[in-house]
Amino acid sequence: MKLLEDKILNESVVLNDEILKVDGFINHQVDPKLMKEIGEEFAEYFKDRGITKVATIESSGISPALMTALALGVPLIIMKKSPSNVMKTDLFHTEVVSFTKGSSYELTVSKSHISENDHVLIIDDFLANGEASTGAIRLVRKGNATIAGVGILIEKSFQAGRNKLNEAMIEVYSLARIESLKGGIIQFKKQEN
Amino acid sequence: MKLLEDKILNESVVLNDEILKVDGFINHQVDPKLMKEIGEEFAEYFKDRGITKVATIESSGISPALMTALALGVPLIIMKKSPSNVMKTDLFHTEVVSFTKGSSYELTVSKSHISENDHVLIIDDFLANGEASTGAIRLVRKGNATIAGVGILIEKSFQAGRNKLNEAMIEVYSLARIESLKGGIIQFKKQEN
Predict the structure, then answer these.
(1) What CATH number is attached to the domain comprising B48?
(2) Per the database record, which ranges form the Phosphoribosyltransferase domain (chains A, B) (predicted)?
(3) Residues making up the binding site of A for 5-phospho-alpha-D-ribose 1-diphosphate
(4) Residue B193 covered by a domain
């Protein structure tokens, strides 16, 4: 998506070879018009697939996921991060381990919001090693719902997330795919999907 | 706002005399069309006031705040909840103490996103004792910005938040004002503002 790639080139900051800071328009200050265009792009790509719900993980995925849900005409589910060992019986929960950060959290969703009749599109801001996305997928499947795909704003193609999801037969649609951040230079991968 | 009041009557759960659960359409599962209408309502009410940014606190205020920012044509700022004692020099921070929950957290915003040229509208889902809203106001003022007002989805009028804000000369516009939840019955206050 050229609009997003241009924003990344003009307004993001490369912190090191692995970290891109997009605080100015996605994560901390949010550009609502960009989010609307992103939502419409995801909705166009994933239309006609019988999607019943969009899901995301709080909190930086909420803005693009809300706009996608609006464009698809379906509800949005916000999966919650909680301290480990939440054991409420009315929640599905799964542990998400971040190897890069060396930390883990419990991801939860209310049992009343996901059922076997649901076909769920997962939206998130970043795809790196796929820990968050695979956690979200586990939660959806605990509710016996099916996965329509994963929509990502910024994919770090030099990390393992996409391969992990593709091996699990999950389709990934990323609006911007970054091949390298080496030397502070943002290099996009040619779009193939 | 009749649409929101009807949703509250039909889809919320009164947990006790003080707590209303709106997990099905605001906090956990989100109704995007309702959020769009809410955003347009706030934008209509607060238009022509020179608002430069909408601000909210992660994460349940993000959806209505994004739609308000979109309708006003300005950026959204997501204030972050962090463990106490975050002392990064590039952040404004303030402590928010919740007397009801008996807990506190550090609310932060990047110094690069709020300046003396900003006139900020704060949007949040609930107004109870006003701890979150007054914390957000303190942060905005640390950046030498001014407050255009506070927009709230659901005000618990039997708690002190509105009075606290009004005493500080802050205008509050609440889309639904609940006078009482006693006995499991939702009673709305007559709208005066």
Answers:
(1) 3.40.50.2020
(2) 32-157
(3) 128-132
(4) no
Q: Report yes or no: A32 and A62 within 8 Å, Cβ to Cβ.
A: no
DSSP, residue by residue, B124-177 = EEEESSSHHHHHHHHHHHHTT-EEEEEEEEEEETTSSHHHHHHHTT--EEEEEE
Could you report the per-residue pLDDT of B6-49, keeping only the tens digit for each?
999 999 999 999 999 999 999 999 999 999 999 999 999 999 99
Task: Read off the pLDDT of each residue in B72-83 and give the average, rounded to a whole number.
Answer: 93
Listed by number, the residues of chain A in 6-45 with a beta carbon closer than 8 Å to a beta carbon of chain B are 23-24, 27-33, 35-36
Residue B88: its pLDDT value, please? Answer: 74
Helix (H, G, I), strand (E, B), or coil: what is residue A6?
A: helix
d(CA A79, CA B172): 30
Task: Please give the model's pTM, rounded to 2 decimal places.
Answer: 0.95
The size of the A-B interface in CB pairs under 8 A is 96
Residue B158 is assigned to a structural domain of this protein: yes
Residue-range definition of the domain harbouring residue A169: 2-188
Shortest Cα distance from B148 to chain A (angstroms)? Answer: 18
Looking at the partner chain, which of B35, B36, B75 has a beta carbon nearest the beta carbon of A30? B75
**Mean pLDDT across the stretch B171-178?**
98
The domain tally of chain A equals: 1
Query: Would you call A113 helix, strand, or coil by DSSP?
Result: helix
Least Cα distance to B192 among B157, B165, B158 occurs for B157
State the complex-level ipTM: 0.95
